[in-house]
Amino acid sequence: MLKDEDFYLPGTPYTKEEIRAVLLKKLNLKGEEVVYEVGSGSGTITVELALSLPRGKVYAFEKDLQRLTVIKENLRRFSVRNVVLIPQALPCDLSAYPPPDLVVIGGSSSLREVLKQVGACLKNGGVLAGLAVTLESLAIYQEFFQNSSFTDFDGISIAVTRLKKAGSYHILNAQNPVFIFTGRKKEENNG
After folding, report:
1. 114-128 pLDDT, tens per residue?
2. Which end of the chain is more exposed for a tag (fewer CB within 10 A), N or C?
3. Residue ranges per structural domain of the chain
4. How far apart are CA 146 and CA 38, in angstroms?
5. Rounded to whole angstroms, how far apart are CA atoms 53 and 14?
6. Distance between CA 149 and CA 125 in Å, rounded?
7. Domain 4-185 class?
8. Is 144 exposed, middle or buried (0-12, 13-18, 19+ CB in 10 A)?
9. Which residue has the higher pLDDT, 191 or 8?
């Protein structure tokens, strides 16, 4: 697991190392999956996914050009070669890309539409994971998983508090809580 300070993060929002650690544990990667990462932001999750997939590939969707520059620097910094950067947001035409075994949604301004699209293109038995930091996103994820063909639905909240030096004292510096939702697309029986 990489430390936050190992990344190039020039004032851009990013997923903290404790959240990345729990997310990766919940994903239970085998090392050869095809992953779509939606809303790649600064690339912290992108890099961790790619390093965990020596025989796999990450398709990282990010529309913000400034954030794409940050992601490229982080990929260079860690010598990551198994990421395809896609400079656009979902929903979009995905016909040029292989169907994913796993989808990770870091953020999206069109979350309902994105969930519908990735839920449809995800391989049967594939895992959909989403991170939420707003009440609105929480409600959208809950609605989606309750009304879809996903099983093994799980949701957790993580609240990290770090020590911060303040003179001769140490104070508690609370980070924003993050919710991680996961679900597995039902396998279709063909018999």
Report:
1. 999 999 999 999 999
2. C
3. 4-185
4. 21
5. 21
6. 10
7. alpha beta
8. buried
9. 8
